[in-house]
Each structure stands twice: as C-alpha cells, then as structure tokens.
Amino acid sequence: MTVQVTQIVGGQWGDEGKGKIVDLLVKEERYGVVVRYNGGNNAGHTVVVGDKKYPLHLLPSGVLHPHVKNVLAAGVVIDPIWFAKELAGLAQRGIDTTKISLLISERAHLILPWHRLLDGVQGGKIGTTGKGIGPCYSDRALRVGLRVGDLIDRKGRVDVEGFSRKFHHLAREKGRVLTEIYGCEAMETEKELAEILKCAEKMAPYVGRAEENLSNWYEEGETILYEGAQGSLLDCDWGSYPFVTSSSVGLSGALAGAGRDISPERRIAIVKAYTTRVGEGPFVSELGDYQRVKKEETEPISDLTQEERRSAIEGDDLWMGRWLRSVGCEYGTTTGRPRRCGWLDLVAVKHAVSCFGLTEIALTKLDVLVDLPKLYLCVAYDLEGERIEHVPSRLEDLEKCKPIYEECSGFEAWKEVSSWEELPAKAKDYLQKIEAYLEIPVKILSVGPKRSESILFD
Ligand code: IMP
Questions:
Q1: What is the DSSP letter of 301?
Q2: pLDDT at 73 over 90
Q3: Is 395 in the pocket of ligand 1 (CB under 6 A)?
Q4: Cβ(414)–Cβ(422) below 8 Å
C-alpha cells in the first residue's frame, strides 16, 4: 500500500533494522523522496544490497537508489567532516556519488569540534555515541549554534571569512569550558577549522532550500518517506529520560524537523523480534547483566558452544543474552559496542505505538529466534508487587520494574519463506500474539538482512 506520506519510527531503543525497511519500501513501493528529520551520525543503518553492505550513519537510506530525492532536513545535526567521510565511503564501495540526489537544509545545525569533545566528557553517564549530538542540540536551544547556512552561502559558496570569524569566537569560549572546567587539552582550532572548510567544499553542491523544495514536491504529488533515526524509547520527551537522545523521534519531530506541515498518514513502527539497547539506562526485559557484558565482551563473540547453548536453554540469562547477541550480530554499527539483549518488551513498544500514533508494524530479525525451545514476551511490569502495563515516567520506578512474561513455543528454522503460509505455525502464533497486544497489524516481516528476505503482507 503506497500512501503519499509515510513515516518509519524505531519502536524500541534504536537498531531495529530501519535502514533495511526504508530501502525495501523505496524499492517495492517506489517512494520518490526520503527525508531524515532528526539526529545525526549517531544513527547507524546497514543496508545490504546483493552481497554488498552499505553502512550509513548520516545520509538517508534512499541514497542507494538513483531515482530517489534525499533530504537532510532542518532538524538533523550535521558534522561536515563526517559527511565528507561518509560520501567518500560510498564512492569507495562503487556508488557514483555525483548521481546522488541530496538536499541539505541551510537551517540544519552543525556539529563542531567542541560538541564532540564536550560529549566525550559529559555524555559518559548516559553512554552516548560520543558524536557531539547532545551538545549540538543544546547550543541550538541556547541559540548559539552555527548552521549549514553559516558555512555555505545561498549561492553554494563556502563562506570562509564569515564562518571563520564565528568559529573563532565560539572556539575561544568553548575552549575555555573544555580546558578550565573539564581539564581537557587545548583544541587544535586552526587544524579543525581548515578540515571543516575542506569538507564544506564537498557539502556545498548539496545545500539548498530543502524545506521549500519538499513542500513543492509534496504539492506535485511525490510520495515521501520520513526516515526517523534512533528509537521511540530514546525520544527526548517520551523515552527513558535522561537515558535518551536529544531529538524528537516521532511525529512531532518529523513535523518540526522537516519544516513543513506535511503529516504522514501511515506511521510504521519498526520492531525487532526481541529487544536490544546500547548505552546506559533501564531495560526491564534484559537478559544478563550489562556491567558484566561491558567488561567481558570487548570482542564480538562467535557461535556459542553446545554446552553454552544448554546453559542458556536451562535458564541462564547471561548465556541467553549472549545467544541473541551472537546470532543477531548485536554490536553497534556506530560504536562497535556490544548491544544489551533481552526478550521482546511489548509494554515498551505499546508505549511507542500510543505516544506516536503508529499504525502498523514492520517486524525484523525473526530469523534470529529460530531453534529456541521457548520464547518469552514481556506483557506487563511488576512494580513493587503491583502489575502495571505502562512505562513509568519516573526513572526510579522504571528501574524497579521486573518483567512479567508470557511464554511462547519456539519455532524451527526454515530454508526460505516468502509468504505467511510458509511460516512455521508457531512463528505465526508469535506474530499473532504481538499483533493482539499492540492492536496494530504486522505488515512487513523481515527474516534476514537481504532485501529479498522480506515478506510484505496486504
Ligand atoms: P546520543 O544520541 O549520542 O546522545 O546518545 C544517547 C543515547 O542514545 C545513548 O544511549 C546511545 O547509545 C543511544 N543512541 C543514539 N543513537 C542511537 C542509534 O541510532 N541506535 C541505538 N542507540 C542510539
């Protein structure tokens, strides 16, 4: 079903496989425009086409399709050095970057060197990606940030003089905070500035009046896909605050971040068949102990041995968490950190569905769960003896919640599935339980990383 405007939103803590779903929708349903409206290069999408993997962080997932117009809208925060690096990475993988249709909003804020450094010293407690996201959004709110339009003028020229003046002014002020308050070494201001100006030349051809263009395309009847970054539980207001990112992930983020009142009729929650989280913060259905995971897993773990699998099946949560991590390759695309793993927390997903008015589900990574004798769905929380079915907003309460599970039968592995009928009966049961709890239908099912390993239901 193609409607004119669709939004995809991560229904959990990010890493749900949004890149693949955007890529699939663009191919199968021929969306003409893909818009990123929030976050920056803290996101990490891996799109697999044929045998090739394309890791994307900042660029919209539509860049792999020559017919798609891509937009980095005003609500995105852009690190010019990263931008140039990501573009060069695509060129190295054989993508003709001169053919990419991309428009960057002049209003988008720039991530500058002090944002990354401040994130390094302030973001530890949250376990941020360290990309400077929070400090950049803070400067936007304080109205001291620099925007793409400060770096590149309306004629597409790099404003060396004007930008350097503003950069030096801020560098002095931020440099003092870094050295005097946080005891950091002095920034290499001139080197950083020269690098930004060099990378700005790579950005310049893409900068323009993104919001006006988006509006015109909409009027002309183009189909538009809003690509939300991060996940609902990382939303600055509705997530597990303060262990969240600094942008709005849902509908309001799309409307504010894309700059025009173009409301998506179809809002797809991308939901992984189990739950993962990176960084700190409460995780009710977690399997295993994050502090141990952090310490013990400095390298990705390979397949579990028979004995380790037996321990997992017999109820050792640490090994079950590792099973999911190893089979699901749950290591951060952006930071390489081991992701915390747990059973599917439906209470958290339902929270996302109701906060953001999500209308359907794309369920990903169901294949990771094959060959487990039993699966568990978290259907409620136990908060000091009280059964609740909502996500408490108080951190102290959320931290005390224990999962209440519904047990489901596991399902066997399959060779290939391309329709609902071909799924094992017990996998169908698992999906139907999810639909019944969330009260919205599963419309897309992903059973592997490739585009071809997906089922679209009518
Ligand atoms: P920040 O967005 O770098 O400020 O990080 C804030 C929190 O969001 C941390 O827990 C990060 O691990 C998490 N986070 C940010 N972006 C993503 C993402 O794309 N996937 C998963 N977690 C993310």
A1: -
A2: yes
A3: no
A4: yes
pLDDT tens, position by position, 22-72: 989 998 888 999 999 999 999 988 877 777 888 899 999 899 888 999 999
Ligand 1: which residue has its CA nearest to atom 19? 43
What are 163's two structure tokens? 């930008």
Give tens-digit pLDDT for 273-327: 999 999 899 999 999 988 888 888 878 887 888 899 999 998 899 999 999 999 9
Supply the residue whose CA is at minimum distance from atom 1 of ligand 1: 128
Distance in angstroms (rounded) separating the CA atoms of residues 205 and 207: 6
Q: How far is the C-alpha of 230 from the C-alpha of 244, rounded, in Å?
A: 9
Mutate which of 41, 42, 45 for ligand 1 pocket (most atoms within 8 A of beta carbon): 42
Looking up tokens 């140039």 gives 84
Rounded CA gap, 147 and 150, in Å? Answer: 5
Catalytic positions are 15, 45
> Using only C-alpha atoms, what is the Rg of the chain?
22
**pLDDT mean over 213-222:** 95
Instruction: In whole angstroms, give the CA distance from residue 435 to residue 431.
Output: 6
d(CA 30, CA 224): 10
Question: CB of 10 closer than 6 A to ligand 1?
Answer: no
Give yes or no for residue 245 CB within 6 A of ligand 1. Answer: yes
- pLDDT surpasses 70 at 1: no
Cβ proximity of 368 and 274 under 8 Å: yes
Of all helices (H) and strands (E), which one includes residue 438? helix 425-438
